[in-house]
Design a protein that fits this description.
Elements: E1 2-9, E2 16-20, E3 29-34, E4 37-45, E5 63-72, E6 77-83, E7 92-97, E8 101-108, E9 113-121, H1 125-128, E10 140-142, E11 148-153, E12 157-162, E13 200-203, H2 204-207, E14 214-219, E15 227-232, E16 249-255, E17 265-272, E18 276-281, E19 289-293, E20 296-301, E21 304-310, H3 314-318, E22 324-325, E23 337-342, E24 345-349, E25 354-362, E26 368-378, E27 384-388, E28 392-396, E29 402-418, E30 441-448, H4 454-462, H5 478-482, E31 489-505, E32 514-517, H6 524-528, E33 536-541, E34 548-552, E35 559-565, E36 571-576, E37 590-596, E38 601-606, E39 610-613, E40 624-630, E41 635-640, E42 643-648, E43 651-657, E44 662-668, E45 671-676, E46 681-690, E47 696-702, E48 713-721, H7 749-752, H8 761-770, H9 776-789, H10 802-805, E49 811-818, E50 823-828, E51 832-837, E52 846-847, H11 863-867, H12 873-876, E53 878-886, E54 892-899, E55 903-910, E56 918-922, H13 943-951, E57 955-961, E58 964-969, E59 975-979, E60 985-989, E61 1000-1003, E62 1011-1015, E63 1020-1025, E64 1038-1042, E65 1046-1053, E66 1058-1068, E67 1071-1075, ...
Parallel strand pairs: 1-91, 21-22
Antiparallel strand pairs: 1-90, 2-3, 3-4, 4-5, 6-7, 7-8, 8-9, 10-11, 11-12, 12-13, 14-15, 15-16, 16-17, 18-19, 19-20, 20-21, 23-24, 24-25, 25-26, 27-28, 28-29, 29-31, 30-31, 32-33, 33-34, 34-64, 35-63, 36-37, 37-38, 38-39, 40-41, 41-42, 42-43, 44-45, 45-46, 46-47, 48-49, 49-50, 50-51, 52-56, ...
């Protein structure tokens, strides 16, 4: 059985986050990594702000995250750090991968991709010391002064990576080194030296023979040489042995002298508590480090006695380390995250999601004297934390949505601490506000001496009223206390912090269970089509208070408002009517609808209702090829094949006859571009003037310079740019920050005067910030900006966010594609050639400006150079060219090129050289259901009609459909392309019932606000809106329904059309059961307030309605205390009352988890979902559970399924078959099994059984003999997560997912020699996914043709939030794509030097006796990259494997169509 595996929804969890200057030294970006995806975000301000913080510095406005780049790697990121590297112009990224690989990466503007600067591989056998399992994560740690980095190898060794000395010097990017028109164009400095010197390895046992079991490594601040702190546990212990052996951890500080390669231990501390977790280096001026243990916090610094506190009462009797009691706090730090907030302040996120601010309070000699912990807010369950631009905190999560918080310091409060020789401290518990879910204030502080102003004293003493003295010194009278003066006491100023949520990133992992169901919120039209069932996916995501149900659909199913049947329409345009003065396009309503027919045009007026107009100012005699608006919707313009009309208020202002046939037209307010069928272009500009009667009127006039028409034009379009990327060449763009460095390109600016059109950024910035020209105030701004680069000065002083709020003046550009394949960009209205790409349609990854290397001579370029070259084969395929600005304020410029065989999407990006200082890079998009680009022509069309239909544009820009802007792709495979302010390109197919779509238009009307129109296959005009209950700014259209409890299982009940959900909520408990000889007895413990009690899960079963997406009232059934649900299945059991003899029931298996001394028992519970009379006003309460059976079994019930109408269950070590009779279960047969069966599946009379440790077995139930027997099993040991059948016509395979992230395919082949006569299942294929699969299901493949053989697609969901499929394919297709995969392995981009073939190889800790990897499963992700390759490479690859490009593309398209579901 040959198959292909592909992931269709990438991982969404975030496990690592760093903040660094990824693209250039000016902008700080957030880089996140989760599974094998790296994303780069930037912060965009939402609006202006005038707020200031406690220190009087400006506070940045609330920010949104915009994703600028996404990279998919062939390996999972294990650890990630960044290194400041000003000399290279941008920072380095260090990423480590499984076992012991390290790559040094950097962004490269020439290819707009990540390049690998160096690769370090430490997986030789002598490194592993004979071990085969490696639980250690290869942590990377970077020296704060960027002198070196280290990586932990196998927990026993350290790899040291020294950096060059000049890494941190301010040299600037070699690309930006010299202006190109200067004399010194030769590069003076050698470019591309590796930033790292030779790496070497330290064996930790050589430093100190005790070092083993490393818990954490960190670099310390403030040492002359890089100093590494190692936290380790030489001899291990565990919680049950602390009475005998405790305080087993130790730490040592190692100074790294890299030139001499000597590493002395300069500092060591032993006998730290046994539960130490991690070390947190403390920044200067305090220095030292903070050791975080589960129950205590300890501050250590060289030559200073340690200071530690216990966080709960467990710490007091598990350690002898001297600890003080931290009053008013009872927390544990396991599973917590930490990030530095500033001097001596840390943000702590606990495992329950509480955010605390920890302040280290120090005295005058910089010794830490006390800690202050303050609960600030409750937020998401955090996996990683990172501070960005010192005012924002990013909480990355694998269990919930990741959050971006703004952290602001608010008013100050004074607290006293007493510096007496007694070492007595006055502990002050601050009364805190109610810890709600929302934002709360928190306190934190820095120490300063008391000032002597009496008014200030009085003011500060007023805030002492809520203080409590909890120590030896009783404060009786405040004034008496004040007498001692400042020699005894330093006051500590506590700053309160406010956390505000700015943005969140959707995350649907971990997906624990998934179920298919029928969507209920659908228009009637979908219910009628019975042949293809519409299904959606409902998955259990998250945990605890981040628990949610995720509803996933792949297609967009528009909500129908009304439909008309209008045959014969080829094209359609919606036009805005006259709107009130000055209102923007978003507010305007569409007043007219123009429909193109073969021989003319039809005009509809769209108000409250839609009527045809007979006498309008529009031309109706010839087919319309374009209609639109100009001058902010004041004017309407219509272009037909023979002429142009300008209309205002339904009155014709101007009519222009064309001497050639127009083929295509486009507007960019106020320009109109018309392209003829003979390859000429005309650009007209709208001139507005006051008419005779005083009302505004206008005329279209051609631009002064015409478009050069040799060689012939193929496509042309105009574009209005608001992104600021297209900067005119005479505006100098070296200034960003508002400082004037005087680097002008050899011109004297003052002498020639400022040109009115040019954008001088340095001037705009200065005037915005400080007003006026180079005044003293402006000079002060330079000082400020220079200071803000110094490490001591806060970044917010320089107002780094200001540049995102500058309004960009629109610029106008004409894009022209000629027959010889040149793409030219002309600036309007000067018609100056600014950008030239040769062979633009070849599909190259980067479109670079050919004028970059040659400055334009004033006389214009030699005619020969432009007109040379004959016809270009690639250019002839180009059918359509569209340039749009989408995303945040239109800052993302997309250029869509639709060729006859593919659609290429390019995105503009900043590049430091050339005229426009930009390039285009190809976006690699995969069309989920395949893409066909062909005009919808029929055989009996005449020549003119065929030309018309060929010219219909299939890429339609829409400004507001349901609040999104983007492009709709018409044709046989219709798609919505969204790019919202989040910045990620989304492609969602329109549901296949409507394909092919002839044309599309956005439509905003009172009855259909921000909706759209399209013609479907049956030539019916449909007026639709986007359903609002889904969010489309995700990989799949998604709805996340928060439950605030942990969901465990979900299943769909077909008869009642509801979902059955098992969830649990945790609460602390003081009781437990203990064994007293013959029976169990309940014990109650009271350990006081400071004891962290264990959490007890309470399980419940509920019905969930897919109509309102909420739990149906009064259906919740609470299970017993201590009872855990282990499985939930919708089973069909034999029942006399129905025709099929079967009926669907909900079966639940449970277990009572008491303790290891008490024997496990469980229950089987069977529910029927019955219809009852709903309660008044609550129509959803028409369904209830009816309990049919609930009895205790002889052991824990761990798995359930049905076979031939019988219930089959795994109870303890046995598997039983039951028959449901008179609401009781009667035993039929049983068999003994392995260790712990946790999954069972049945098809016909075969039962597939998965064991937690012993892989899978195949059982058969023989009905006439009533026997259950073992047929065959996999003889190796493997930890199975889930399994499903693979169905390929008549062959059956068994697909299993394993704990290491592999999937394997087994088959039962008793004829094969290696199966020992059928006793052993044969492994036919295996594949490494890199993510663990916890749920699988099957669905019938969409049948393309009736004669193709039937097969099922096996879908899987992963614990990292991914979805994918495994599809059986024919041997012919497998062979062809296997050759393609082998060649693609050398062609595709190996980011970080990772190899796809190595990544996809089966990974196992033990070297199995079953031979090596079987492969046999194609890597669909790699093969699919073929569609986005440049045309020349496509041809090259096809030649190498001896086939045609079309054949490979047809195979890929067929796979996409077979899996077109949901």
């Amino acid at each position: 059985m040959f198959s292909i595996c592909r992931q269709t929804h990438p991982a969404t969890g975030i496990e690592h986050a760093v903040s660094c200057c990824f693209f250039n030294n000016e902008d700080t970006c957030l880089v996140t990594a989760g599974s094998n995806i790296i994303k780069v975000f930037r912060l965009l301000p939402e609006g202006h702000t005038k707020e200031v913080n406690a220190a009087g510095q400006p506070i940045p406005p609330k920010m949104k995250l915009e994703c600028l780049a996404t990279y998919t790697l062939w390996g999972n990121v294990m650890s990630m750090e960044s290194v400041r590297c000003p000399s290279a112009g941008r920072d380095l990224l260090l990423v480590s991968f499984k076992e012991a690989k390290l790559s040094v990466l950097q962004y490269d503007p020439q290819t707009n991709n990540l390049i690998t600067l160096s690769m370090h591989y430490f997986e030789e056998d002598d490194m592993k010391n004979g071990w085969t399992t490696h639980p250690h994560i290869p942590w990377i740690r970077v020296d704060p002064e960027a002198r070196c980095a280290v990586m932990l190898l196998y927990g026993k060794k350290l790899a040291v990576l020294p950096f060059r000395k000049d890494l941190a010097s301010e040299d600037g990017d070699p690309l930006e080194a010299k202006p190109l028109d200067s004399k010194k164009a030769q590069p003076t400095q050698p470019i591309n030296r590796a930033p790292t010197l030779a790496s070497y390895v330290i064996v930790l046992k050589d430093l100190d023979e005790k070092i083993d079991n490393i818990l954490d490594i960190q670099f310390l601040h403030g040492y002359y040489e890089p100093t590494l702190l190692i936290l380790y546990e030489p001899v291990r212990t565990f919680a049950g042995r602390t009475a005998v052996r405790n305080d087993t951890c130790a730490m040592c500080g190692v100074s790294l002298n890299m030139s001499a390669r000597v590493h002395p231990v300069i500092w060591a501390t032993a006998h730290l508590p046994f539960d130490c977790l991690r070390a947190v280096p403390v920044q200067k001026p305090l220095g030292g480090c903070l050791i975080m243990a589960v129950n205590s916090l300890i501050y250590l610094n060289q030559s200073v006695p340690p200071y530690g506190v216990s966080l709960n009462s467990i710490a007091t009797h598990t350690t002898n380390f001297p600890l003080r009691i931290q009053e008013g706090v009872c927390i544990t730090l396991d599973g917590s995250c930490v990030a530095p907030l500033g001097e001596g302040r840390l943000a702590l996120s606990l495992r329950g999601g509480q955010l605390y601010v920890l302040t280290l309070l120090a005295d005058s000699v910089r010794t830490v004297r006390s800690f202050h912990l303050d609960r600030a807010a409750a937020s998401v369950l955090t996996t990683c934390m990172c501070v960005i631009e010192e005012d924002f905190l990013f909480l990355g999560s694998r269990l919930g949505n990741s959050l971006l918080l703004r952290v602001t310091e608010r008013e100050n409060r004074m607290l006293f601490s007493v510096d007496k020789p007694l070492e007595a401290t006055v502990d002050l518990t601050v009364s805190e506000p109610d810890p709600a879910i929302t934002t709360l204030t928190s306190t934190s502080g820095n120490t300063q001496q008391k000032d002597s102003d009496p008014a200030a004293k009085k003011r500060r003493l007023d805030t002492l009223s809520d203080c409590v003295a909890s120590n030896v010194i009783e404060i009786s009278d405040k004034d008496e206390l004040e007498v001692y003066g400042s020699d005894i006491r330093t006051s500590t100023q506590l700053t309160s912090y406010v956390f505000e949520v700015c943005d969140s990133l959707l995350n649907i992992c971990p997906i624990g269970d998934v179920s298919m169901g029928e969507p209920q919120l659908l228009s009637e039209e979908y219910a009628r089509s019975q042949d293809s069932h519409i299904v959606e996916l409902v998955a259990c995501s998250g945990r605890g208070k981040n628990g949610a149900l995720t509803v996933l659909q792949r297609t967009v199913r528009p909500q129908l408002i009304t439909a008309f049947n209008l045959p014969g329409c080829i094209d359609m345009w919606s036009v805005f009517g006259e709107s009130a003065e000055g209102s923007r396009e978003a507010d305007g309503a569409h007043a007219y609808l123009l429909l193109t027919q073969e021989d003319g045009s039809m005009v509809l007026q769209t108000g409250q209702e839609i009527n045809e107009l007979d006498n309008s100012a529009f031309m109706t005699a010839s087919p319309t090829i374009f209609a639109g608006n100009l001058a902010n919707n004041k004017f309407m313009v219509q272009v037909t094949t023979v002429g142009i009309r300008l209309i205002k208020n339904g009155v014709q202002l101007q009519s222009i006859q064309l001497e050639w046939t127009a083929q295509y037209a486009a507007t960019a307010d106020p320009y109109l571009c018309v392209l003829s069928a003979c390859g000429r272009a005309l650009v007209l500009a709208l001139r507005e003037f006051k008419g005779k009667d005083g009302s505004s009127s206008g005329r279209l006039a051609p631009t002064r310079q015409a478009v050069p028409h040799r060689p012939a034009l193929l496509r042309a379009t105009v574009y209005r740019d608001l992104s600021g990327l297209f900067t005119p060449p005479d505006a100098d763009n070296t200034q960003v920050k508002g400082e004037f460095t005087g680097k002008m390109k050899g011109k004297n600016v003052k002498a020639e005067g400022f040109k009115p059109g040019a954008v001088y950024e340095l001037n705009d910035e200065d005037e915005l910030l400080y007003g006026g020209d180079q005044t003293p105030a402006s000079m002060a701004s330079i000082m400020l900006a220079e200071q803000s680069k110094n490490p001591g000065v806060p970044r917010r002083i320089s107002r780094w966010w200001k540049k995102h709020l500058v309004d960009v003046k629109p610029t106008y550009w004409l894009f022209v594609l000629r027959l010889n394949g040149n793409l030219e960009i002309y600036s309007l209205p000067e018609m100056r050639l600014s950008f030239l790409v040769r062979d633009a349609c070849a599909g190259n990854r980067i479109l670079a400006d050919s004028l970059e290397s040659v400055p334009i001579p004033s006389s214009g370029i030699d005619d020969e150079e432009l007109t040379g070259g004959g016809q270009n084969a690639d250019a002839e395929k180009l059918k359509e060219l569209l340039v749009v600005g989408v995303g945040h304020k239109g800052t993302r410029v997309l250029m869509l090129m639709r060729c006859s065989d593919q659609l290429m999407i390019y995105q503009a990006y900043k590049y430091p050289r050339g005229n426009l200082k930009m390039r285009f890079s190809r976006v690699s998009v995969s069309f989920p259901f395949g893409y066909v680009s062909s005009a919808l022509t029929t055989a009996d069309d005449n020549y003119e009609t065929q030309q018309l239909k060929e010219g219909v544009r299939q890429c339609r820009y829409f400004g507001n459909v349901g609040g999104y802007n983007g492009v709709f792709l018409c044709g046989p495979t219709p798609y919505f392309l969204f790019l919202s302010a989040r910045g990620e390109l989304r492609l969602h197919p329109l549901c296949s019932e409507h394909a092919p779509v002839a044309s599309f238009a956005p439509f905003n009307n009172t009855n259909c606000p921000s909706g759209f129109l399209f013609f479907n296959a049956k030539s019916s005009l449909r007026i639709c809106a986007l359903p609002t209950h889904l969010s489309y700014d995700a990989w799949w259209p998604v709805r996340k329904v928060p439950l605030r409890v942990t969901p465990h299982f979900v299943t769909y009940h077909v008869e009642s059309k509801t979902y059955c959900l098992v969830a649990s909520s945790a609460a602390p408990t003081t009781t437990y059961y203990k064994f007293n000889g013959e029976d169990k007895e309940k014990a109650n413990e009271n350990k006081g307030d400071r004891f962290p009690y264990p959490m007890q899960d309470k399980f419940s079963v509920t019905l969930f309605s897919p109509v309102s997406w909420e739990i149906i009232p009064n259906t919740r059934i609470e299970l017993d205390e201590w009872e855990h649900v282990t499985c939930l299945k919708n089973v069909s059991l034999s029942y006399e009352g129905t025709r099929s003899g079967l009926r669907g029931y909900i079966a639940i298996g449970t277990n009572y988890n008491y303790s290891e001394d008490i024997t496990s028992r469980g229950r089987i519970i069977i529910y029927d979902i019955i219809d009852v009379v709903p309660e008044p006003g609550q129509p959803l309460t028409k369904n209830r559970f009816k309990e049919l059976y609930a009895k205790e079994q002889k052991g824990p019930v761990t798995a359930l399924t049905q076979v031939l109408g019988y219930l089959i269950s795994a109870v303890g070590q046995k598997i039983y078959i039951w028959q449901l009779k008179d609401n009781d279960l009667v035993g039929v047969a049983f068999i003994d099994t392995q260790i712990y069966v946790h999954r069972m599946l049945a098809v016909k009379n075969l039962v597939l059984v998965a064991d937690v440790y012993k892989s899978i077995s195949l059982l058969r139930y023989q009905h006439q003999h009533r026997t259950l027997s073992l047929v065959s099993r996999d003889l190796r040991t493997a930890q199975i997560y889930d399994m499903e059948f693979m169905v390929d016509n008549t062959t059956l395979g068994f697909l299993v997912s394993e704990s290491e992230g592999n999937i394997a395919l087994f088959m039962y082949q008793p004829q094969a020699r290696e199966s020992y006569g059928g006793q052993r299942l044969i492994r036919k294929g295996d594949y490494h996914l890199g993510q663990q699969v916890n749920a699988m299901f099957r669905i019938n493949a969409t049948n393309l043709s009736p004669e193709s053989h039937r097969r099922h697609v096996t879908m899987f969901t992963t614990l990292d939030g991914g979805l994918g499929y495994v599809l059986p394919i024919t041997e012919k297709m497998y062979r062809r794509l296997l050759m393609l995969q082998n060649v693609m392995n050398n062609y595709c981009c190996h980011i970080a030097g990772l190899n796809p073939r190595a990544y996809r190889t089966y990974k196992s800790a033990r070297r199995g006796c079953g031979g090596g990897a079987a492969r046999g499963v194609l890597d669909g992700d790699l093969v699919a990259l073929y569609a986005c390759m440049p045309n020349a490479e496509k041809l090259d690859i096809a030649k190498k494997i001896g086939t045609k490009v079309e054949e490979i593309m047809a195979d890929l398209f067929e796979i996409d169509r077979l899996t077109a579901h949901f």
